[in-house]
Structures are given as structure tokens and as C-alpha cells.
Amino acid sequence: MNDKVDKLVIFLAKRDGIDKLVKTFQYVSKLVVWRAEGAHPNVAHRAKQWEVAAGLSRKAFRSGRFLTGFNALRRSPGSTPTFQLLAVLANAGEMVYFFFDHFLWLSRIGVLDAHLARKMSFISAFGESFGYIFFIISDFIVIREGIKEEHKLLHSTENTKDVTKSIRKIRVDRVMRLMAVAANVADLIIGVADIEPNPFCNHAVTLGISGLVSAWAGWYRNWPS
């Protein structure tokens, strides 16, 4: 029990840990609004207030987050020209997302003209979606290469202990990357709902489930090992 409490404390001490927790609140409340708005309007109203507050809190907490894109490119530019290009495109999209998200937040709380909100939302969502596409492609390429390497190791005649350790490492990395893909696909759906509103992506259930998939996949990836 103490170990779990310690891990929870470490998780919530991270910026991403808090973000995933508040994101869970945001999208659970969205689903509550959808479920209760007909029969329990008072509950739906309270849940909507919780959803809006959680969304605005996340935007405030992400202030300066666009700078992480620069740091990511500096620390890990990619091992090949292909990965370098994918890293530049993915992080550029994410930087646009987080940068314009600042203006979206300011317009929604009344500091900037409220009419800017729609434009800032579109630019932010477009950058987000653009970046996620290349993050997903990068992860699938690495997963494919990992499967090939695992196949070679399984048929290797080298030291069994070293081979087992390498295979375990590849499998752990694959799980983490699949979690990243799940989160990015879910966030891509949310982004598309802002860029090109449509009945499927903009449905409360689609948005709610996508938000929770993204939050919980991120929760899994950030949970202390």
C-alpha cells in the first residue's frame, strides 16, 4: 500500500501527472452532461461547470509547454534522416498547438477578445492534429523495427540471459508506444472535432471516450515503474 501511495505522490508531482488527472475529470464530466442533460438538468449544469473549469485549468497549467518541443528536438533529433524529419514535423505541430492554446485560454477567460477563441481553437487543433499524425507514424515505424529485432533474437544462438533481457526491453517499449499511439489517435479525433465538426467526432460519447483513452494511456505511460 505504501508503495502505491509513493508512486501516486510521484505521479501527481509531475506536470503530466496532474494533467492526466484533470483530463479525466474533464471528460468524465462531459459524459455525465450527455447522460444527465435530459432527465437531470441540474446535475448536467453542475457537470458542465466542472468540465469547463477542468478544461481551463489544464490550459493554464500547460503555460510554456510549447518549449518542450524545442527541447525534444535538441535531445533526440533522430537516428536517421527519416526520423529527423518526422521528429521536426511532429514537434513543430505540437509547438503550434501549445503556443496558440495560450491565446485560446486567454480569450476564453476574457483577457483577449472572445471572438478570437474560435480562430485560436482552429489553429491550435490543426497544429495538434498535424503533429499527432507524425508521432503515430514514428511510433509504428519503431514498433515494426522492434518486431523484426525480436524475431531475430528469438532465433538467435547467443547467451540466453542477454537475449531474454533484450526481448523484454523490446516488448516493454512496444507496450509504451502502443499506449502513445492510442493516446495520439484519441487526441487526433478530438482535434478533428475542432477543425472539421462532424456528427461522429463531435458527439459527446466520442469525445468523452477519446478523452478518457488519451488520459488513461498517458496515465499508464507516466506512472512510476
TrEMBL record:
Give coiled-coil spans as residue ranges.
none
Q: One Pfam match, by short name?
A: PEX11
Protein name, please?
A: Peroxisomal membrane protein 11B
Q: Which GO terms describe its molecular function?
A: identical protein binding
> Do you know which PANTHER family this protein is assigned to?
PEROXISOMAL BIOGENESIS FACTOR 11, PEROXISOMAL MEMBRANE PROTEIN 11B
The protein's UniProt keywords, in alphabetical order, are: Membrane, Peroxisome, Peroxisome biogenesis, Transmembrane, Transmembrane helix
Compartments reported by the entry:
Peroxisome membrane
Would you kindly state one Gene Ontology biological process term found in this protein's UniProt entry?
peroxisome fission
Specify the protein's topology with respect to the membrane: Multi-pass membrane protein
